[in-house]
């Protein structure tokens, strides 16, 4: 997911490292994506070199939506999961009605969780008014950790505290500790909202010894965003946690609390 996002311009740049090549493959490597015409893109996508196929999909960002959409929709039928993932990213960038329905189908039915996660993330670019309920449905129906992590990340930006608390509760109710940690981190955005107290209560419960160390550590870190006395007191108590990683997180949070946490809800 990160590689696709970076190559489509959603990250910090092209983070992939490619092999040196000779011949036409080598020349492709040095072409600026804007210089790759549609005929070359179609030819590359019909080939067997995965690197060229991915670069062809990335080059579509410099072409019009009308030109890019049919190529991306075709790539979405590829038998290679990473090609389908990049196609999802592209369809999210171009945002067409056909692309929306294709992404929703992939998010619901693709056999690979990487593709389902990428499709869910791309759906969020169509606007939360349209996609929030769909993302919540996908979260309830798909218990793969990667898909759920992607949806939690997307909804962290939706600006609706009720939705964020709802999906965080669902994530905490699952069995995957990676998802539970993501849900705890999401609770941090509720500082300064009307639901701050409920979020803090969930974090305090997660910080106790009957939870795995990674859950306690994430709770300790996130509590550093909450300005209340209960959070401060719990961070002090966690300095006695049997796991040194939790202790380190509690010390980090104590420093944040001393410097005064900031909230996106407070101005």
UniProtKB/TrEMBL annotation:
One of its GO terms (cellular component) is phycobilisome. The keyword Cell membrane does not apply. Pfam families: HEAT_2. The keyword Phosphoprotein does not apply. SUPFAM superfamilies: ARM repeat. InterPro entries: ARM-like, ARM-type_fold, PBS_lyase_HEAT. Belongs to the CpcE/RpcE/PecE family. This is HEAT repeat domain-containing protein. It comes from Synechococcus sp. SB0676_bin_10.
């Amino acid at each position: 997911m990160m590689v696709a996002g970076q190559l489509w311009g959603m990250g910090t740049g092209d983070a992939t490292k490619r092999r040196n090549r000779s011949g036409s493959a080598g020349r492709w490597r040095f072409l600026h994506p804007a210089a790759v015409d549609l005929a070359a893109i179609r030819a590359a996508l019909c080939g067997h070199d995965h690197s060229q196929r991915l670069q062809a999909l990335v080059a579509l960002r410099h072409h019009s939506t009308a030109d890019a959409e049919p190529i991306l929709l075709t790539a979405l039928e590829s038998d290679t999961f990473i090609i389908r993932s990049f196609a999802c990213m592209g369809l999210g960038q171009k945002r067409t009605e056909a692309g929306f329905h294709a992404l929703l189908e992939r998010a619901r039915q693709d056999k690979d969780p990487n593709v389902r996660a990428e499709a869910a993330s791309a759906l969020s670019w169509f606007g939360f008014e349209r996609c929030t309920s769909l993302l919540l449905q996908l979260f309830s129906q798909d218990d793969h950790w990667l898909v759920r992590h992607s949806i939690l990340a997307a909804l962290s930006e939706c600006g609706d505290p009720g939705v964020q608390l709802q999906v965080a509760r669902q994530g905490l109710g699952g069995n995957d500790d990676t998802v539970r940690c993501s849900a705890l981190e999401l609770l941090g955005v509720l500082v300064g909202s009307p639901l701050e107290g409920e979020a803090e209560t969930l974090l305090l419960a997660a910080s106790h010894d009957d939870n795995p160390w990674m859950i306690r550590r994430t709770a300790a870190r996130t509590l550093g965003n909450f300005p209340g006395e209960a959070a401060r007191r719990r961070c002090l108590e966690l300095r006695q946690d049997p796991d040194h990683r939790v202790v380190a997180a509690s010390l980090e949070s104590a420093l944040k609390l001393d410097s005064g946490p900031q909230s996106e809800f407070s101005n």
